[in-house]
Amino acid sequence: MSTPPDVVELTTRLMSIDSTSGREGEVIAWLADYLTARGWRTQRIPVGAQRDDLFATAVDEPLVTLSTHLDTVPPFIPPRVTGDMIHGRGACDAKGIAAAMICAADRLRADGLPIALLFVIGEEVSHDGAHAANEAFAAGRVPRTSRILINGEPTESTLAVGTKGAVRVTVRTAGQAAHSAYPHLGRSATHDLVRLLATLDDIGWPTDSLLGETTVNIGSLSGGVADNVVSPAAEARLMIRLVTPEVEVRSLIERWANGRATLEWGPMVPPVRLGVLDGMPTSVAAFATDIPALTNWGTPYLFGPGSIHVAHRDDEHVRVDELRAAVTAYERLARNAMPRPARQP
To answer: H or E stretch including 255?
Structure first.
């Protein structure tokens, strides 16, 4: 087998390729060539026009799949290494994780363990890559043998016992345009929207003993046409982090709007309980992942180096020592979670 890959070098090489969601083609092509050259059998899983996931294995019946996403949020920030830190887009979310998984998989393959790698796209937007991979598994376009899915997201090197879900909703109010000097002749949609949003904190949001509280983020606001015109329309885009089934929150929001606004519901990811292993520290992830869209790939685990608190920020980074330790951690996770052969009677 060729020389083992260096996790820092591989991380910075992946990070040097701009793979902002929707522009993942170059990084998938580069990684396919890289893995093929190292003796992996690689396969593209079509997601959309000129957009693919990447599956790799060295055996006919892999039992454990290491998986993360290769798309990133904008803007592209090239990598730089300073002392014991890797900075830049994807350092922890999630190209450093992908590199650690590849290094771990190389070790596992060398020992003859039935391992596979799955790198998906679109996680930061709609999880379309994960959905495509799940459909490919169901249709038998990839081996239908995986029993364990180890997903990678920055969890500060802990095993997540559960993740919150997420749902998007756009709230729209309608008004009547008028000259702003005579506001009584119109109706301000922006005024109505602001007053409505101010009552979000009054909703009795669900809580869960494991996952904690439902949270709501007003991600963006827009409305109006000019300073001297009473606003005829306005909208707010909300992201709600779920700890209970979506139907509970949907009912609360519909009662809250109650004819004062129209609602357009977007993509939803449900909350999930996850597998744990003895001896590994645990945490609860407040963010959503691809795991609910990869249900066919086996019992899910979630682990990754780095902190979600710096993901999506301009100062995104991961410590080199934590990244190197993650290689051993993924190897240990895969070995311990590997299904054991059934005993002969």
So the answer is: helix 246-257
Active-site residue, selected from the candidate residues 123, 153, 235, 316: 123
Which tens digit of pLDDT belongs to each residue from 45-61?
999 989 999 999 999 99
46-71: buried (b, 16+ CB within 10 Å) or exposed (e) per residue?
A: ebeeebbbbbbbbeeebbbbbbbbbb
| Catalytic annotation present for 123 | yes
The fold for domain 165-269 equals Alpha-Beta Plaits (3.30.70)
The number of CA neighbours under 13 Å toward the Cβ of 105 is: 29
Q: What is the dihedral of CA 139, 142, 147, 148, to 10 degrees?
A: -120
Angle subtended by helix axes 320-337 and 7-15, to nearest 10? 100
CA separation (Å) from 89 to 72, 236, 240? 7, 28, 25
The helix (run of H) or strand (run of E) holding residue 117 is strand 115-120
Query: Considering the entire predicted model, what is its pTM?
Result: 0.86
Q: Is the pLDDT of residue 343 over 80?
A: no
Place of tokens 């993360």: 68
Domain positions in the chain = 7-162+272-337, 165-269
Give the E-state strand segments of 70-109 in sequence order: 80-82, 85-87
pLDDT in tens, 188-204: 999 999 999 999 999 99
| Both tokens assigned to 173 | 């109010």
Q: Domain spanning 7-162+272-337: which superfamily?
A: Zn peptidases (3.40.630.10)
